[in-house]
Amino acid sequence: MLGPLSAGAVGEMVRGQLDASAEESFCAAVSDLSGGNPLFVRELLAAAREEGLPARDKSVPGLQRIAPRAVGSSVLARLGRLDAESVALARALAVLGAGAEVMFAAWLAQMDADVAELAADRLAAAQILAPIRPLEFFHPLVGAAVLENIAPGARRVAHRRAAELLDGAAEGSLPRVAAHLLAYGPGGDRWVVQRLTDAARAALEHGAPDIAASYARRVLTEPPGTAERAGLLLLLGTAEWSAGQPDAIAPLEQALAGAGDDRRTLALASRELGRAYYVTDHSDLAVEVLDRALAAVGDTDSRLAVRLEASAALAGMPDELTAPAAIRRAEGLRRRLRTLTDPPLNLLVALALDAARANRADEAQELAERALASEPYPPPFSLINPR
Description:
Number of helices: 20
Radius of gyration: 29 Å
Order of helices and strands: HHHHHHHHHHHHHHHHHHHH
Largest sheet: none
């Protein structure tokens, strides 16, 4: 079997068959997309000619868009000449994604693993799959073409089934489960709500707020139960705020409005919304939100109440309108500090700032050192075991 064409050889084909003045970046894109496969190069160039794409750098996104369709006709023609088991296995791999073990692809294709092994060999002989394990397509464009050829409804159903098959199959499978569920349509499915919620919390905990936000948005379309909605809006707003998205305040406000009698959600939403208002120079709104939460919590959770009060003191200090009340609040918290065996981190920070403001340098230093030595909060804005 001949090896792939070099980038230089692909460039010669582009200039010979499409445009003698083709730009290097366009030629490089053809080489990358085709993998140097001469047939794929010809198909791409024919599609580019049909689309009227000039061989220029600005056409690279368009070339990437049409690439799966461009090679699809030849790929699907080869696939169509194979048996039903081979077709089913190729489609299963297209849904699962490259790198799937034969066993998982066989499960999704609803066939025996031994039958799948032999079907994979036939697909490799037809240059649909690579002759390796775990399973890989001969080229990514082949997989894209096979996936696009699956009807939308069948594709959604396959993604839902793939998520179930992968769930709990191996440690760390949750992100893969969630990726499949993102491709599955809303259906009021309780299992989908639970797994995507778990995935969003895990992504947030591991410092991937953009991914967490995408999962939370998808959960909200399922939709969740009424009792869960406020908590999921809080999760969404928290993730979006951590990712630096300016619209994050809206879901936080909705979470607070929908918290009802759920004191924990109300307190957490108030804390995150108060922080968002504070960062966006709305100290008055931050203090108002935190005060309402403090009143709702009352004496039901003394540690949470201290954290909310410390947050209100911190939020109010920078604004001249809210600073006097914030300073009085900080003085009250200062008197209570000695009664707390494990003061929350934000309380130590608030009191350190108050001491620095009042030129109590030694006290400010001591409190700052205690804050630095204190066990930190969970990952930013975490909803898991909040401290």
